[in-house]
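Please fill in the sequence for the structure shown.

STRUCTURE ENCODING:
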């Protein structure tokens, strides 16, 4: 990229199917000249159209080797893009606000894997873009694998046409039981007070209703019922269908003292999902995924419509921060 940024290659990248030769997934960009943080922020504003073009063709862009060493600087880098922030309302992951529009990524224990999902695909209002930032490089593991959602749709449609047809017709229902407070031992441990950003049940019900979510209050928490909600969407900007859901994540990962993952997601008519197809979908996601090992200072920008992401288990320390944009 002219003068300031240059694309580099990694052995972990894959070509983007049907995108022509030379389009890698993800794109990786590094500085072509020496930069301080102020100049880096200015260059992000200047080169935003080029970065967005890379994002559109590749689905994800990694900014590597730039002078971003703190959460505050990451916040400044996100702001330089000029995207509107999306409040984290309705999401499941336990998170903590760090500074400005920056939060911790999922705080569940390091031995737990987080399955593939689109961020907040289980609610109607979801981010269009995600930023991740590596503040502390993992000692071992801890990658954030990513996979192109149109590739998953095409492979599932080819292998399980009847299942995908029913999925497109019926959609999905997501069910989750929340306590009042956050449970950091669970990958879906966000309590209802954090989920709806209130301690008032009536306000929580109003905010849930705006999402199309039903609440059933229990003695020690609340059951949330979301759906039916589409599991496949049409990406108008790219002219293709995409696999846009948290089906595998819910079915294989929404497990804690309150939740049974098999009951966490069903077809939109309430019928159970076929376990063997879900397990095979998980294998396909892994086969098609790319996992770039984190380096301190890395920023990964993800198009949330085009790409699913996950998290591998790791040996601490590791600290990945995140920011969500409309």
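FILLED IN BY: designer on duty
SEQUENCE:
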């Amino acid at each position: 990229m002219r003068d300031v940024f240059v694309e580099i290659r990694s052995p972990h990248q894959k070509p983007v199917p049907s995108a022509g030769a030379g389009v890698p997934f993800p794109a990786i960009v590094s500085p072509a000249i020496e930069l301080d943080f102020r100049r880096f922020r200015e260059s992000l504003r200047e080169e935003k159209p080029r970065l967005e073009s890379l994002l559109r063709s590749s689905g994800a862009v990694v900014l590597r080797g730039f002078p971003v060493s703190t959460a505050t600087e990451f916040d400044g880098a996100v702001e330089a893009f000029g995207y509107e922030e999306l409040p984290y309302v309705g999401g499941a992951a336990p998170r903590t606000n760090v500074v400005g529009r920056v939060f911790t990524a999922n705080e569940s224990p390091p031995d737990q894997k987080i399955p593939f999902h689109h961020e907040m695909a289980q609610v109607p209002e979801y981010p269009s873009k995600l930023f991740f930032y590596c503040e502390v490089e993992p000692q071992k593991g801890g990658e954030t694998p990513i996979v192109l959602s149109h590739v998953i749709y095409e492979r599932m449609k080819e292998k399980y046409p009847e299942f995908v047809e029913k999925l497109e017709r019926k959609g999905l229902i997501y069910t989750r039981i929340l306590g009042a407070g956050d449970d950091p031992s669970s990958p879906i441990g966000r309590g209802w007070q954090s989920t709806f950003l209130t301690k008032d049940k009536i306000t929580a019900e109003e905010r849930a209703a705006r999402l199309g979510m039903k609440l059933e209050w229990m003695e020690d928490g609340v059951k949330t019922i979301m759906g039916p909600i589409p599991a496949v969407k049409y990406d108008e900007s790219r002219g293709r269908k995409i696999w846009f859901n948290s089906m595998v994540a819910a079915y294989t990962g929404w497990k804690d003292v309150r939740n049974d993952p098999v009951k966490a997601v069903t077809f939109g008519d309430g019928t159970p999902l076929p376990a063997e197809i879900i397990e095979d979908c998980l294998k396909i996601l892994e086969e098609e995924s790319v996992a770039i090992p984190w380096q301190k200072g890395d920023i990964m920008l993800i198009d949330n419509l085009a790409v699913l992401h996950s998290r591998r288990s790791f040996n601490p320390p590791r600290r990945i921060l995140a920011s969500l944009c409309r």
